[in-house]
Amino acid sequence: MDTAQLTVELNALHKALDTASGPEEYSVLVGFDGFVDEIIDVVHKRDSFDQYQRMETISELGNRIQRAAGLSTNIELLPKTIKLGGNGPIMANALSSVGVKVSYVGALGYPDIHPVFRELTDRCEEVYSVTEPGHTDALEFRDGKVMLGKLRSLNDVNWNRFVEHIGLDTIKRLFSAADLVATVNWTMTPYMNEIWGHLLDVAPKVNESSAPIFFIDLADPEKRKAEDIAEAMEIIQSFRRNYRVVLGLNRKEATEVAQVLGLELSSAPDTVSLEEITKALAQALDVWCLMVHPTTEAAAVCEGEFASVEGPYTERPNLTTGAGDNFNSGFCVGLLMGLSLRHALLLGKVTSGFYVREMHSPSVAELKAFIETWLQHVGEDF
Questions:
Q1: What is the DSSP annotation of 233-273?
Q2: For the chain, which terminal residue's Cβ has fewer other Cβ atoms within 10 angstroms, N or C?
Q3: For the domain that residue 262 is a member of, what is the CATH number?
Q4: What is the pTM of this model?
Q5: Which helix (H) or strand (E) covers residue 93, if one does?
Q6: Could you give the number of structural domains in the chain?
Q7: Which range of residues forms the domain containing residue 111?
Q8: pLDDT at residue 195 greater than cutoff 90
């Protein structure tokens, strides 16, 4: 997309946020994880007790660790903040920030909600927490992040516990009433395939044209076995009879799924163009919408239509943990509001672009202000 076209598209998106039915018109159910995230700098050099230089890239940390093989080393981790974490809570928080009516099921603390989630749960319509959250040490770098997770408590996120603590009638009501259901962090939710299987039995029976949206985010499945990923893809396809299914992947996840599916591409899955891998995955999985979002751009195929957008990229984000979840939130809000596929992708990029700079999820007013700022810097890093 050239700068002139991007300017037109951003102005159109800004107008759509004023004229389309607002996010507050829609209800969303999100689940099922929950983490307390500790955002951490890795210290490269200490200038004094109060001043330090952080490691800027993941390769710096990797090289430090590699040099210590057969020896030992001391790496200082400097916590910066503690915040709500997990793909579900971050996405739910972003959705509620723009006014969507959100309900949550997952691991936010049991029997009491962990304080880090209180602001989110106070805004939610309904909350059902069945176990304690996991914990993540999120090592932040300029070129990405390393997530060190402790997730034993997520073993308790399973169907039997849902039925025991929520009740089957309530589960049916929650999953039937929502305009969008988002089940995220498949990788760290050990029993997600089992949960999905049971949800197929309670999902609403509707025509696809009027069906609610079912959004899935795998969340870095590299550590899971290929046969587990393949099984997940089969179950996801089964939801087509109940929902408009949307599978969202970052670029690394798209590569891993393509490898599991054995897609025939013009080059290796990790080097092929974004357009080719998005279209190939969409054809292979045949879901309503297949979306792939690298750091600098995003693309999707929805009902046979392909669209892609770029930006707004910054080389120095203030917070990257949760950027993908905020993108997912913005993209899903665009779909709910009936925006064009390109505008839904742009809304995802605007949402994540604001988040990595301002370190919190935006309101609608902040989204519009960010679009105005982007319009002043089209073609630039800002």
A1: HHHHHHGGGTSEEEEEE-HHHHHHHHHHHT---SS-TTTS-
A2: C
A3: 3.40.1190.20
A4: 0.91
A5: helix 87-97
A6: 1
A7: 3-40+84-376
A8: yes
